[in-house]
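FAQ: What does a multi-protein file look like?

Like this. Sequence, then tokens, then the next protein.
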Amino acid sequence: MSRPAVAYLRVSSEQQGKSGLGLDAQRQAVERFAAEHGFAIVETYTEVETGKGSDALDRRPQLAAALKRAKAERCPVIVAKLDRLSRDVAFVSGLMAQRVPFIVAELGPDVDPFMLHVYAALAEKERAMISARTRDALAAAKARGVRLGNRTNLPEATRRSAAVRSAAADRHAANVLPVIEEVRRGGATSLRQVAAALTARGVRTPRGGAWTAAAVRNVLARQAAAA
């Protein structure tokens, strides 16, 4: 008899999310693992969001929803690779504290939580080394007289900054919409009731605050505009 499990997929850029680049490979890896080890996927949660930052979980409502479903089903969350959760040891430790078992398909079914911490530490160290090499390369280029960046085109920089903020808001709206739909199916009929339910679930707004009816309306408006 198959055991239930929840699948969680994540890519870190809007472009990847729209193209499906990376998501299909993750889905296939998780489904193949589940079939080989006797799991039945009861729900798949997909997120387009970076894994960086101390507030990463607040910005990942689909991961929060996956945790909630896994607790209700008393089952594990399966991811294709550990970095689909995070490369940050503190973040992974925080997830372990949720008392929901995580299974990383590429590591196999028998990796215990301690080893997940070890693998996360190695990934975090690798990321730090890559960042250090990038800084050293930029410093060396600057020392050779290479001009880095373009500080004269402020209007263009401002436009790009606004575009980045808008893309982040669209990404957050896309991630939180399935949670809103689930709340509505649960009986919430007004925007205020939906906002209260999101706040009660620990889902954060893009700025990290509590939900209001206006914030819910903004999410729905963004999704309607994107449709």
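And here is the next protein:
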Amino acid sequence: MNDRDAAQADIGLIGLAVMGENLALNMESRGARVAVYNRTPEKTRVFMAGRAAGKRFIAAETLRELVQHLKRPRRVMLMVKAGAPVQETIETLAPLLEPDDILIDGGNSNFHDTERRVAEVERQGLRYVGTGVSGGEEGALRGPAIMPGGSEGAWRDLRPIFEAIAARAPDGTPCCRWIGPGGAGHFVKMVHNGIEYGDMQLIAEAYHLMRDVLQLSGERMQATFETWNRGDLQSYLIEITADIMAFREADGGLLVERILDAAGQKGTGRWTVAGALDLGVPLTLIGESVFARYLSALKEERVTAAGILGPPTDLPPLEDRESLVADLEQALLAAKIISYSQGFALMRSAAAAYGWALDYSDIALVWRSGCIIRSGFLDPIAAAFQNDPGLSNLILSPYFREKLHKAQAGWRRVAATAIQSGIPVPALSGALAYYDGLRCANLPANLLQAQRDYFGAHTYERVDRPRGTFFHTEWTAPSPEE
């Protein structure tokens, strides 16, 4: 290596918002020299004078200067807002690069955009990688879960730095795997975020029942979540919920009770549901989680309705709070399993539709640490797909089948209590409806098909004829017996 190469950067990073800054610092701390650029030069100067001071960073005030600072093949990672900003950056940057250079989009881009960009960039002789990065600001700094996909030839050149900055699972392996071609990486990250929506809604519903039905104190809720985090429900989201329940303001009041009950979202949950609709996958729990956020946003309308629409009356007394807490743990566990099973079912359908050879065991292993949905049963998920790579639905595997069987009595009692008490639990009850629907050999869809044929001549199949043979009836004509 000559002196010029020694002074050049191993990777360039565009976009110095908090995620970009933290990821750049992570890369540098793992031995990489990083060239950084921000659309606003002042932001770059502040970073270089502050958190980057004394470290192996090279500042660039133009994209051309950034490219000049990079070793070949050049690796440039975009940490900018999804949509038009990514596209504009690519269009400006690509003409400055040379064949085999690599563009990496580390934001939450829609996988359809990534599919298109891979093809466009490869036509220019470059390589393109759409990379899911999960773990929030802390994960970006200390080790996120990383889900790259796109131009497969780029993996050899990216693998050392991505594995170096990734979170480590308990067994020491990096939480980073090559996901697949095209938009596969961003699709898997999108599903991750959909499962995250589901997990968060399930926990919120459990909290709602604890607060309004069981009327538990903040201290008791905190203790409950801490206990759950030592069992089958062990996960990052349960852990931080216990922390939230412990946080009090100066006057001793629980901060969580003073936060407005109107949830925001950035769109990845909605994309997950739209993807499921496109592929015909019953992603019911995650769909309910997205709609629950929309409903929460109608704060003023809900306040008005609360003064008009009455609650249930003559409720039976709640006799055994401790038993309901135990049931709630089982309900939450069962519904959480459904959330993951639906997410993996969506990925399986996408793999078939888009020609991706996804490794579901690898995906579960990537999510074991660093990401928001990391939890104790990701190892059993990985094992389930290792034992049966053709597994059509996670809940059919022996491990999860047994967990659901043991949990369902408590799950049903919780759903019934919530309904009787007038507490909305769309995710918990929706998960149960999915479970019951999947295990029901004879659904009433035969009536739906009869109705469709009656008003639209859409035809139907018969149980006493081979599948694929279709029939139509003139429903208003005299029956053959007349």
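Q: Is there any per-entry metadata?
A: Some entries carry free-text notes. For the entry above: The longest strand covers residues 127-134.
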